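Section 5: illustrative case.
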């Protein structure tokens, strides 16, 4: 471009004199101009593996969530009366928070809270709503949370607390009349029996007959009885039938032609079939001292 007039000008490649005509149209590039590119190309690539490893930290908890958790825990710990107007909201908040791995573990890691929840499971003058919600809180905190389950059980089965939540569930399955509460107890039982020792303790305490009795119990005007029977059946399928099938197959007692479905039906009929006699005590309410 002509800076004086603003007009564009074309630049022509004019062959230099004394050059071979065959190469007159070639442009020779000075390699000294590429020195910067060569240096960049030869320079080593930065590796993120050389960065110092930082320790893994859990996600930062929300301040409002933390406040809600500690306020709810304080309410549960301080509860000593039959008045439940503050206890119910606290339990509801803890149940919601306990779906989190962090809060579920934090809840049952506190031995005082674990003992308090255990006491709320037992027959008392507290409302069924409180006992049912406390059962749900305990079950939610340890459900699919092996660390929480292990630490929760560590607070029981010692000189001071010789019994634990499993015994509270067994007592409820023997005597409670509320299908709503029993549904929550079955959920807690499923969560507890993720620990093999708890499942074995249940069976040693007559768990099969206990489940048969719960399945066939007749609750007058109970709307949740179908749901309860489904929970009992699912527990049997997940914890008893599958285990029994594996044991029989390992021992060579199962025919190769028999399928898992056939084994399931065989054991369901044996465990939950109509006409089964039971040696457990008749179902009835527990007397509250």
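Designed sequence:
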């Amino acid at each position: 471009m002509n800076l004086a007039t603003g007009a564009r000008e074309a630049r022509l490649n004019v062959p230099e004199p004394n050059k071979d005509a065959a190469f007159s149209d070639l442009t020779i590039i000075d390699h000294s101009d590429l020195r910067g590119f060569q240096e960049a190309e030869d320079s080593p690539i930065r590796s993120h593996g050389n960065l110092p490893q930082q320790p893994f930290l859990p996600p930062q908890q929300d301040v409002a969530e933390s406040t809600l958790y500690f306020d709810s825990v304080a309410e549960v710990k301080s509860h000593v009366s039959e008045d439940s107007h503050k206890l119910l909201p606290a339990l509801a908040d803890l149940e919601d928070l306990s779906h989190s791995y962090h809060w579920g573990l934090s809840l049952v890691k506190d031995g005082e809270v674990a003992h308090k929840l255990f006491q709320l499971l037992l027959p008392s003058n507290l409302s069924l709503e409180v006992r049912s919600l406390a059962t749900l809180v305990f079950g939610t905190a340890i459900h699919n949370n092996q660390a929480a389950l292990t630490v929760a059980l560590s607070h029981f089965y010692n000189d001071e607390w010789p019994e634990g939540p499993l015994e509270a569930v067994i007592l409820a399955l023997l005597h409670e009349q509320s299908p709503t509460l029993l549904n929550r107890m079955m959920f807690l039982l499923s969560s507890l029996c993720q620990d093999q020792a708890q499942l074995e303790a249940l069976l040693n305490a007559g768990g099969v007959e206990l489940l048969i009795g719960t399945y066939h119990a007749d609750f007058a005007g109970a709307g949740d009885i179908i749901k309860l029977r489904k929970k009992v059946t699912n527990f049997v399928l997940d914890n008893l039938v599958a285990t029994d099938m594996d044991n029989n197959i390992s021992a060579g007692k199962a025919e190769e032609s028999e399928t898992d479905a056939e084994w399931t039906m065989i054991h369901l009929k044996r465990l939950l079939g109509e006409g089964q006699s039971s040696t457990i005590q008749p179902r009835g309410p527990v007397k509250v001292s």
